[in-house]
Amino acid sequence: MLNFRVPENRYSFSKAIMNNSQKPLDSLNVFSFKGIQMQTFHITWITFFFCFFGWFGIAPLMKIVKDDLGLTKGQIGNIIIASVSATIFARLLIGRLCDTIGPRLTYTWLLVFGSLPVMTIGLADSYESFLLFRLAIGVIGASFVITQYHTSAMFAPKIKGTANAVAGGWGNLGGGITNMVMPLVLAGFVGLGYSNPQAWRYAMVLPGAMLLIMAFVYYKFTKDTPMGNYSEIERDTTTQAKGSFISAASDYRTWILFLAYGACFGIEITFDNVAALYFSESFSCDLKTAGLLAGVFGFMNIFARAVGGIVADKVGSAYGMRGKGWLLAGLLVLEGLGIILFAQTGSIAMAVMAMLGFAMFLKMANGATYAIVPFIDAKNVGSVAGIVGAGGNLGGVLAGFLFKSETISYAQAFIYIGFAVAVIGAITALIKFDKKQLAETNSALSVA
User: Does the keyword Transmembrane helix apply (predicted)?
Assistant: First the structure.
């Protein structure tokens, strides 16, 4: 990950030049705000939380947007695809920028530029213009890579999985809360006398403004590393070689995790996009009820992703990285079976119960994936994180094509997705670590 010129260990911080406040933490106390490590941790997940408001704030309002702009099912499918497709390329770039200019500046500029299409999407007056705005907004999804990169920089190896999962999970919580909050924001504007076609446009100004506020907070109150910003410290520039991305991309395990993350996070963002519409049209729910049910799915991130990271760290301590791989594979298979069950339920009560079941396995798989990522290529964590993160969005894009189809129903689309996820779970079980890597990684996991 972050490499410094130190005499004792090329891949660690020097004990000779750092006091305790400059070291990665070897424990996570979520109630603590002391030190740059915990301050950065909290600001990072809170920023990621608000990024979801910008990224998916329009999703629970799509029923009104559909009526206002006269959108067809196929057009809505294209919009779903657009909302996650731009993120694929953005995550690849953002991972590289984290390795070079640092997570602090990378996040700051992403928030500034990302806020613009969020605040101005209300200017869209046609399917084509709305599609372009949704495409631009998708870049905000690259914020996840920075969140995981920055958290990895602040914590020691044995706790990285837990810290990454908690930060990612609490940030992902924004995907659920936005489904609950944005219909209320819209209702507030309607209460002020605006019509629905006007209200959804004004409602999107709020999440855009929050992104600008968080850009200032991130720049002002975080550091790239426990030792300081990249501009303030001497780093080992050998890790910034042009081949760093190629090195990360040449490891087949990176691409298996790419598939795995597409099968968990990719399905999560797809569900965030379509859940409210699915409940509304399949079970005749009103907008607020559909948004609430969709929000429950996202709200599980308050604990479920963290559980995945915690369990993965425990399994890693006992069985090494091979154990983490088997855990991830099992979670994906169970997720796939749960999605198939969800698609076949005939009542809203059973649908919600099935949703809670597959959501638990899905979000735990998210956490388990990024409990493995920092150990694939320790010198190029940003590049690995970017590639794997991009896999999540590619999964969302491919799933979006199913929901775009005029020939299959939403329920059938979920069945196909469930089978695909289960197959990818089986493939994930193929992850191997050679004996040398197992020894090195297991040693790192036991470092306090």
Answer: yes
